[in-house]
Write a structure and sequence with these properties.
heterodimer, A: about 270 residues, six-stranded antiparallel β-barrel, six-stranded antiparallel barrel, about 30% helix, globular, B: about 170 residues, mainly alpha, 6 helices
């Protein structure tokens, strides 16, 4: 026993190295799985405050572009809704139906150049945000909330290696899946396309509404390149995301008011089958 | 002695803020991420206790992870860098004498020596970092491409930063 301690002490540099690497790698591997990253609530108010004060300054540089986007969206919304009564709460932007509830939020920090990218938003549990709510921008979908603190929420961006969105081809309603190839923040990958389907450039890919996170029919992107596979059953296509992740500033967080109801039903039946 | 501590604490805060607020928001062509925060580890005194060096590297890496929400990723790569540092110093500058508080900086190692020292250690750090991040050898070439490009940019930025600060110190003296 004593010899062991002497041995460890003599090689303390190496032993320390192994211990610290083991700790880091445990942290790292735990954060890789989607469900653990839901449980591991890394949002905290210290880093949030630093980023918030920083973005208060840098936001001014993008004001003009952001204003243009908002005005464009206002025009679109005005076209959608006929005479609105002004009683609506100013915090709520749209309320299409009884199922989905929209809240506005601002991106405080974001990244696009890693293999797993995240967004930090300035609304948290205080404002009613919960994990597994969808996040969209004015032009398309952006990500899924995975963690909340009182003032901030942490969002897995569409540009994440574990992100997989259930989608539909708009023109023929075929179900497909969208993920990020990991190369370029402008482009994504559509997989599981039945091989008899013909896709052309500029065909729209929209959300399917199957996941209970996003409403049906929100634009994800437009087809850029399609190679029909001859030997496989399922082919793939490259799409251009309709959301510009590099200039994301104002987003909407979507709450599905019927999610709890649906979840209870599903879990009741899975229990029944067991 | 206290001068040594103050200098390193100020350097730590300055480098961290620069990395987190400026460089982490930079996107050069989608492939290049300069990570200059390791300059803090590179510049710790040559005779620093090796175990202390590892712990400092771990804390430095965790700070970056904390802000980037990549828990463990930078810590693992930076600890590896600290593990390699004494060996690299020994390998390249075997017959150089370092006094107790002397840093392996650009004045001590000369331009060529410091460039060599930085380039090798940055390459070790970035290789670990990008392979852990991708977590597969599937896109081996694309990961390698990222490593090489980012290593070059990080080294270039570290050289520029150290040159700026060294010349300012000389002017004062």
């Amino acid at each position: 026993m004593r010899n062991l301690i002497v041995f460890l002490w003599r090689h303390q540099f190496f032993v320390f190295f192994i211990i610290l690497e083991a700790i880091s790698l445990t942290f790292l591997f735990n954060s890789y799985s989607y469900h653990r990253s839901l449980a591991f609530n890394s949002v905290n108010d210290i880093t949030g405050t630093v980023y918030l004060s920083y973005s208060k300054v840098t936001d001014y540089f993008g004001l003009k572009k952001e204003n243009e986007k908002l005005t464009n969206e206002n025009v679109q919304l005005r076209n959608l809704i006929y005479p609105v009564n002004s009683e609506a709460d100013s915090q709520l932007i749209v309320r299409h139906d009884n199922q989905y509830f929209y809240r506005t939020a601002k991106v405080v920090s974001s990244s696009i150049n890693k293999q797993s990218n995240y967004l930090l938003l300035n609304k948290g549990s205080k404002h009613g945000i919960k994990p597994e709510m969808g996040v969209i921008s004015s032009t398309g979908i952006a990500g899924i909330v995975i963690g909340v603190s009182p003032d901030f929420s942490y969002v897995m961006s569409l540009l994440h290696q574990n992100c997989r969105i259930s989608a539909r081809i708009k023109k023929n309603n075929n179900l497909v899946n969208v993920l990020w190839g990991g190369n370029n923040y402008k482009e994504g990958l559509v997989v599981d396309i039945p091989s008899h389907i013909e896709l052309y450039k500029e065909d729209s890919i929209i959300t399917s509404g199957n996941s209970l996170i996003f409403p049906e029919g929100i634009l994800i992107g437009k087809v850029n390149e399609y190679t029909q596979s001859t030997n496989k059953d399922l082919s793939e296509a490259v799409i251009e995301f309709s959301t510009d992740f590099n200039s994301l500033q104002n987003v909407y967080i979507i709450e599905n008011l019927m999610k709890t109801e649906a979840d209870t039903l599903i879990s009741a039946f899975t229990k029944l089958n067991e | 002695m206290s001068n040594l501590y103050t200098r390193n604490i100020i350097r730590y805060i300055a480098i961290m803020l620069f990395q987190v607020l400026v460089l982490n928001n930079m996107n050069l062509g989608g492939y290049i991420n300069p990570y200059i925060y390791i300059l803090f580890i590179l510049l710790l005194p040559a005779s620093v206790n090796k175990s202390l060096l590892l712990i400092m590297a771990f804390i430095t890496g965790l700070t970056i992870d904390y802000f980037g929400n990549t828990l463990g990723l930078h810590a693992a790569a930076t600890v590896l860098l600290a593990f390699a540092r004494p060996g690299i110093l020994n390998l390249f500058f075997n017959n150089m004498e370092f006094s107790s508080e002397e840093e392996p900086n650009i004045t001590k190692l000369k331009l060529g020596g410091f460039l060599k020292y930085t380039l090798v250690l940055v390459f070790i750090h970035h290789s670990a970092l990008f392979f852990l991040e991708a977590f597969s050898f599937n896109d081996f070439l694309s990961t390698l491409y990222r490593i090489v490009l980012s290593t070059l940019v990080t080294t270039l930025m570290i050289m520029i930063i150290t040159l700026i600060f060294t010349s300012r110190k000389k002017k004062k003296a």
